[in-house]
Amino acid sequence: MLVPRLALRRLAWLALTASVIGLPTARAAEPALTRPAAALPIELSAERLTVTTDRETVAEGDVRLRQGGLLIRADRLSYRPPTDRAAASGGVRLEREGAIFRGDAAELTVRDFSGWFVAPQFDFPPLGTRGEASRIDFASRTQLTAADARYTSCPRPEDGSEPDWQLQARSVTMDFDANEGRAEGARLRFQGVSILALPRLSFPVTGARKTGWLPPTVGLDSRSGLELAVPWYWNLAPDRDLTLTPRVLTRRGVGLDTQLRWLAPEHQGQVDTQWLPDDRVAGRARGLLALRHQHALGALGTLRVDGVRVSDDDWWKDFPRFGRLLTPRLLDASARLDRPMTLGPLALNAYAQVQHWQVLQDAEAPIVAPYARAPRLGLSGRGRGGWLGPLEVSGELELNRFERPDDDSGGLRPEAWRWHALGQVAWPWRAGGVSLVPRLALNAARYRTDEPMADGRREAGRLIGTFSFDAGLRLERDAEGWFGRTSLRQTLEPRLLYVRTPYKRQDHLPNFDAYGKDFNLSSIYTTNAFSGIDRVSDANELTAGVTSRLIDPGDGAELLRVGIVQRFRFADQRVAPQADGDVDGPVQDQRLSDILLFGSTTLLPRWTLDASMQYSPDIGRLQRSILGASYLAGPYRTVSGRYRLARGVSEQFELGWQWPLNAPAAGGRPRSSCSGTWYGVGRINYSLKDSRITDSLVGAEYDAGCWILRMVAERQSTGVSAATTRLMLQLELVGLSRLGPSPLQVLKDNIPGYRLLREADDAPAGAAPTP
Question: What are the sequence ranges of the domains in the chain?
């Protein structure tokens, strides 16, 4: 069943419902309500009992009446068996399903739980919430009405004053069988001020969805001004829902966002739209369309459709909040069908795909758009064992049609069909810490271009084979007494990779997807200096490296890792990437590559250190380096720093933190009082090369125990001299809901080691996962 992202049950009313009726959450409601309570016996004990046979039993002094999960305690209680009616007075305490009710007088029909409770106070310890009402009338185990109800998670002030936040309603009626609740005169008060008021409200009282308004959000950024959004949730069907969000932006105008979702056994997905019919700043209509869909087609396989399209190039600057895409200027739209198969020991996958791109160009920093693939048809597979014996095989056959991007109006880039085949066969041998893997690989490609290639032909191809031999060794010894540890294990792991690929001229062939790999610890142990298919580097080289680690044998934790790697060429490389990663660079006559050094450790208490460096023997200097350190003093106390150098390109320092500004008394978070703790959070990226801050995130969180205030300002660079600044303000009422735009994902994505001040075990009542 679908659950709305800002589900209506995350409003006050579900938490109020759960506490008043005594249910821990909506998900626990149905089993509790359907329990066969009428079949359970009634137990009554007291200091004095007066029994009138078959008519009435009067209990006085420390009275306890128990029936299943129901316990009534009082100074005096009378029970009439013919009517199953119990009347309690004097220090009445009622416990049911984890909820505790206290008051002066109550009268209930025990088995069906109908009756009334005068002026009860109620507590719900699992949620840490409480409340009170002038009267609660129970129609049955599934229906009730509360008059003058109040609900909060703040402790009761000793001076009788109003708690920091409180949800109030003149009348609340709940019907669990119909999944319907109604509130009259609802108000949410914070610090004595009404921040939300609704004269009448209908809401769900279980985990099921219900049509209605969701909490509003307010945001502020430097490009759009003040933003107010009020979502309306529409429960269309058990497997479909729609959220309509009118939005007002003070600088740009009025817009509408929509989200349609569907979830069925065979298919699921959603479509999002954003629409500004008249953007006053841009002077035109603007919009966004995003689609995500997955469909199981039985024997035909699985279809996936995914895509985002926007109206103009400036969308990513003006509205950076949508989806927080990894590449906000490069928007994909694709449809892919996959059909898994098996053939003996081979696991195969046949696929068909169509893929197009939208590139959001910036005159100050243009980017090259990828080719569209329409279509892309292929078959891939891998396997081992069975009739393959000790061999490991993998392969890929693929046909692509490459079409020019829409922004290539000059037609300077070729269009073509390409067929390629990749295949590998390896005979690995691994035993006793020794690993030997000889491997043969094949890369074949055939092209048919619409325009003549560099040599005048329209068709051409090439076939290139590669032999590699990967050898590794793992040696171990005990390292007792090292670094004050009683038991450690040290490893020494040398590795050699020899690659032999003959030279084959390729500069006359088109290049659709090949690009030079970055020189790092991942790429140095690969057999091709290029990604993609269209270029294969010639090679006669040996990569040699060694890694040493310190391991705690008790839990397998790695405490220290250091290593060094270098590549030795026995011949010049004639098909090599350029310095900027492009293809068809100059001949590489450097026999010794740069040296890569790396290390990381957690040996120092509370510290994590890591480093990787690329050292050039030719110039005797570091070409690139990354140095990082993080300090974790305890929960919600972390500081991290990272220095990055790419000589001649960039030099940056990054600082991130989460730290209390006024430490609580016990070193933790306040949980029983509303005298709270301020936490500073943030991350700053500073360019030493440009002497300026490129991106920053600075904020503060105030944890008062029963409510949390988050204030975060984010500045994102959108150009050499342009940036967007956003302000996010969120109030979380613990045990109820969160009001305002959420900065939590931004904080988790940007601050290493960031921890939520409220984890999943104390999430708001009724909070639901986002699909």
Answer: 8-37+44-217, 414-603
Length of the chain: 771
Q: What is the pLDDT of residues 649-701, one digit of tens each?
A: 899 999 999 999 886 544 444 444 445 889 999 999 999 998 989 889 999 99
> For residue 728, what pLDDT band results from cuts at 50, 70 and 90?
confident
CA distances to 5, 60, 153, 272 from 292, in Å = 16, 66, 39, 9
Farthest CA pair distance, the chain: 113
Look-up: residue for tokens 């928007």?
331
Residue 638, burial from CB neighbour count under 10 angstroms (0-12, 13-18, 19+): buried
pTM as predicted = 0.78
Q: Which position has the token pair 């995350």?
A: 10
Q: In degrees rounded to 5, what are phi and psi of residue 53?
A: -55, 130
| pLDDT at 572 > cutoff 50 | yes
Q: Is 10 left (phi over 0), alpha (psi -120 to 50) or beta?
A: alpha
CA separation (Å) from 29 to 19, 33, 117?
11, 6, 21
Rg, the chain, Cα only: 34
Each residue's pLDDT tens digit, 631-641? 999 889 999 99
Closest CA to 327 of 354, 304, 360, 362: 360
Tell me how far apart the alpha carbons of residues 304 and 306 are, in angstroms, rounded to a whole number.
7
Specify the CATH architecture of the domain 8-37+44-217.
Answer: Sandwich (2.60)
Tell me if 306 sits within 8 A of 334, measured CB to CB: yes
Cα end-to-end span (Å), the chain: 10
**Which 3 state secondary structure label does DSSP give 590?**
coil
